[in-house]
Amino acid sequence: MSRMLQIQAHHLRNLFYPKSVAIIGASEKKGSLGRAIMENLLKIGFPGKIYPVNIKGNSCFGLKVYKSVLEIREDIDLAVIIVPAKVVPEVVEDCGKKGIKSAIVISAGFSETGEEGKKLEKRILRISKKYGIRILGPNCLGVYNPKGRIDLIFNPPDRQDKPKPGDIALLSQSGAFGATFLDFMAEEDIGISSFVSYGNAMDITESDLLEYFAEDPDTNVIAMYIEGVKNGRIFASMAEKVVPKKPIIVLKTGRTNSGARAASSHTGSLAGSDQIYSAAFKQYGILRAETINELFVKAKALAFLNPATGDRIGIVTNGGGAGVLTSDFIELKNLKVADLGEDTIKRLETVLPPQASTHNPVDILGDAPAKRYVDATERVLNDKNVDGLIIIIVPQSPALEYNELVKGLVHIINAQDKPVVIAIPGGRIAKKLAREFERYRIPAYRTPEDAVLAMKALVEYGKALRKYKEKNSSAVIQKIVVKKQ
Amino acid sequence: MSRMLQIQAHHLRNLFYPKSVAIIGASEKKGSLGRAIMENLLKIGFPGKIYPVNIKGNSCFGLKVYKSVLEIREDIDLAVIIVPAKVVPEVVEDCGKKGIKSAIVISAGFSETGEEGKKLEKRILRISKKYGIRILGPNCLGVYNPKGRIDLIFNPPDRQDKPKPGDIALLSQSGAFGATFLDFMAEEDIGISSFVSYGNAMDITESDLLEYFAEDPDTNVIAMYIEGVKNGRIFASMAEKVVPKKPIIVLKTGRTNSGARAASSHTGSLAGSDQIYSAAFKQYGILRAETINELFVKAKALAFLNPATGDRIGIVTNGGGAGVLTSDFIELKNLKVADLGEDTIKRLETVLPPQASTHNPVDILGDAPAKRYVDATERVLNDKNVDGLIIIIVPQSPALEYNELVKGLVHIINAQDKPVVIAIPGGRIAKKLAREFERYRIPAYRTPEDAVLAMKALVEYGKALRKYKEKNSSAVIQKIVVKKQ
Prior knowledge:
The structure is a homodimer.
Chain A: H1 3-16, E1 20-24, H2 33-43, E2 49-53, E3 59-60, E4 63-64, E5 78-81, H3 88-98, E6 102-105, H4 115-131, E7 134-136, E8 142-145, E9 150-151, E10 165-172, H5 175-188, E11 192-197, H6 206-215, E12 221-226, H7 232-242, E13 248-252, H8 257-266, H9 274-284, E14 287-289, H10 292-304, E15 312-317, H11 320-332, E16 336-337, H12 342-349, E17 362-363, H13 370-381, E18 388-392, H14 402-413, E19 420-423, H15 428-438, E20 444-445, H16 448-484
Parallel strand pairs in A: 1-2, 1-5, 5-6, 6-7, 10-11, 10-12, 12-13, 13-14, 15-16, 15-17, 15-18, 18-19, 19-20
Antiparallel strand pairs in A: 3-4, 8-9, 8-11
């Protein structure tokens, strides 16, 4: 990395791991954004120094309030700006004078509102360039990093749950959707490395953030909500660098005529034809989600598991109907229901009752105890015609010993390399059992359909990686040929 | 109804509202099906008389155990049979002699297991015909009717949650999937009128059950899981009678080659080409669900709301991104994003801030309080270009007063006829708010995509009803023409 890039990456890192934060617009006023951010930052136990700033002075949650950042003597890593739009230029100027190099402008009222707002946004950009400040926003929800204990989300804590620490970085162009996604992840018990809402992307764009998360050791997968990207070429060339290192999964809206019209009035994104995005995503190996649910279903699998080396999927189930549904879905999603080898079928016959199905889907029957699951799983996983396995557990069955099942399956699954996802359909009890498997980084879903989507992502990412490898090795070959000349 | 049909319907009613039940194979033995059924029936507070029957005699949960139904003096409305397969013919013979007219054979080991089992099943059928007993099963999970307080499901209560009373009848060919569906409905807080798993459908078929639920006053919508139907023509002619009265929504698997192969080995269903099923479903106005989730998303909307009279959908949202996603989904699902009338746009301009979008999707902005929702909803619902409305509530917004929102929206929505579905994306807090709306029979979903699927079902059912109406009026016209001749 060049020195310039290193400095930039450092300033992005300050968004997620600042040692000191100035909250400009901090307040104790009920219902104010300044209050919610102060509450959230205190609640999460931010380990650094907090400097509330407000023109009115006084104190805020027991902390001294500064009238301007220029009054603060110590260094400030990050300024969070929540003052009215028209005051923002002046505040950013102060940040520049103070030597602050990273800022989040949460305030709205800029390019998203029309011509006047666009001018105001350009003014801020000029000031930020003058002082070399990297700015996130404006018009954004903020940043959340549970590991670094930084929570700069402006929604009040009693209305906004947030996920536990984990491996998924989440980038959202939409602030409101970002809030919803965090709440959704918390409910589904899916962990996050960092969340960032980047709003108008005046300075820091989705591509800059991709670059940062590609190097972030806590992030295994990058999930994104976008309506459009700031600069298609830069985004593509960044994706080309990131995807070989870690998967990118995108929920891109504005796909239809109606959606594109709505996107243009929402974020001003010229959504462009969906075909162009689709082609680009395919070319660079960016994975796509069709729905909110699919985004997290796929991100979880990509965060936990190695990609699949092929598309032939095995199924082990104690419910025949679930086996039928899963077979349908595998074929509908352009994966293959694996043809088991004759050896495997013989080996299954020795451990399954005569009424069980030893062909794929392997139906071990409703009265299957844990041992039958373990035996069947071991045999199907060892088949060289199987690239990935979906295990379906109908947990209502009285025959299943849950503890033995988890212990036995985890042992076999984690001792080998093929990806295994689990579907435990049902409600409360199913969810509880799913969490047991996920403690061992085996993703478990509430429907067979979700399990197939998860497997699809692992197959597609595997394919993308192989394509990159081939390209690189042909590049190497070209070099050799050149040398020979 | 003919006298014969009345008697048959009466015997089906005995499955769901028996006054006395003999549990043949009742037991206190831990892990036994006989114990689970006794526990479930006692737990739900069955108001009728329970007669445990077991060849071993003795007592069961404090009740006297009879060695045979023939020992019981009182009349028995329903026999539940859970003895080993080979004993079933003899037990059914006893039931016949006792004058029992309705039975559920839960035991497995019949036609689903091969030639021997097929013979055994035929023997039972002959006995049942001889005595005029209507039999559900064999190889089924049982029956659940929370209003009639009848629970004959053999899964132990600590592994199987069950839904509250409601308007959806659920019919499942698969027992294990049935168990899962009940658990799923309980978790999602979706109410049920009755659940029935009909297994091998030796005597009582899905068509008989459709006929029963068409007349059941507690059922507003019939949801089904099937891999194939027993007799396509009978099913079609039954659907033709039922659909004009209440909607049927089906999750049919065995759609693909892989799925059809799996179905044939699971229930022996010759799944037939999916095109044939699709064409028949379309012709008779049977709605289809692609996934488990979709089955219940659609069933809930159909249970609560009138069908839509057209496909032009309005959107009101406090999240711009959610508006874009919803517009996409409406178009992808072949519905239309309604073009609002000029009057409506003008009327919206008077109540929305200048930065709001007064075109569809109507974006009332992230800082919208309850009143803005109510004002916008009233205006969009009154537009004659709008056939149905999706309201999206991003609940994390600090500006929303929940109580006022629910009160205001319920008042407006329930005072008119157009269907309105709500999407409240998020987690715990979103779910809680959704339940508030559902108390007033306004269906509320956790993603905008689910809300669109729900609306799609209402549009499709409306279309099916109009088609039936046209057909009938043309039939009337034909008659008149005939008379004239």
